[in-house]
Structure formats: structure tokens, C-alpha cells
């Protein structure tokens, strides 16, 4: 049986590109398992159930919390709840496969409390202005939601020193390569869409 792998936790402010970097990691390094979070927020256009998130109703999320099924969970931006199902993370780590968890600051702090051996990586924007540009540019939130996310981002950026590694997302492929180097992955990335 394989020895347990070390969990890597990737966190950072809204619109910094966490999901984009994680998708690039999976496309180029298909051996990395990416955890899928549960959330009470509705899907955005193009998001798929069980692929981007497990979209659940409030009462189902309450049940998951009560039954201890979540490794971490938090109310994000003061509105919706997000959480990481515990069993898939534990099962994948037991196989020895590298595992990546993409979560917010509150969730990262909870995982640090329960799994201090995990590797904690903060994804930072090149600048505050660039973070604002990305958040406004993606057009998925209204003005009030953008302001909530920017207020959260100020708090999250101040917590950068709590992490083991900081990666500036000034270029997705470069940030991905830095992340996989931190994860200690062997072998070259898959190129030209050859990922499985």
C-alpha cells in the first residue's frame, strides 16, 4: 500500500485565480487529485454539479456539518457557505496520490488546526489594482457582492504570513509550475492538451 501523501492547501483572495491555477495543475499534472467543495451558493453559468462544486441546499449543508462530514467549512463573504467533504480527502491521501485543496482563509485556518502537517500555499495577486480588475472583469458578481469580496480580500491579504509559501499569480503557467515544485511533484508536465 502507498504511503500517505501530504495535503497541499491553496488559499487566497477572491478573483486571485485559485480555480484557474488549480485547473491548470490538473490539466498539466493529471496525477494531482483536486478536492471538490460543497457550497450553498447557486451555480454560475457553465459550472457543473460535482465537477466545479457540490451544490447543496442549506438543510443538506446543515446535515453535513452536524454529521462531521466536512474537514472545514465557513461562511464566505458573509453570504454562502463552503466546505470540504472529509472522506474523499482522507481516502485520496491514503492512496499516496498528491492532493490539492482550494479554499478560503477561514477554511485554511481550520485545516491547519486539524492537519498541521499539510502544506499551506497562499496565492497572491501581483497588485491590489490587478485583483480589483480581475474581480470586476469576470462579471459574475453584482456591485454589492464585489464590495463584500474586496472587503474580504483586504483581510485575506493581511494573513499572507500565516502560510508556508506565497506564490504571486502574475502568469498562470508560471504560478502552476511554482505550485507543483512546492508540492514536490516528479516528472514533466503534460503538454498540448495530452492530459487524460
Describe this structure in words.
The strands form two sheets. The protein has a five-stranded parallel beta sheet with strand order 2-7-1-8-9, with helices on both faces. Strands 4-3-6-5 form a four-stranded mixed beta sheet. It is α/β, with parallel strands linked by helices and 196 residues long. It has one domain: Rossmann fold. 40% of the residues lie in helices and 20% in strands. The two termini are 24 Å apart. α1 crosses α7. It contains seven helices and nine strands; from the N terminus they run βαβββαββαβαβααβα. β5 and β6 form a beta hairpin. The longest helix is centred in the C-terminal third of the chain and has 16 residues.
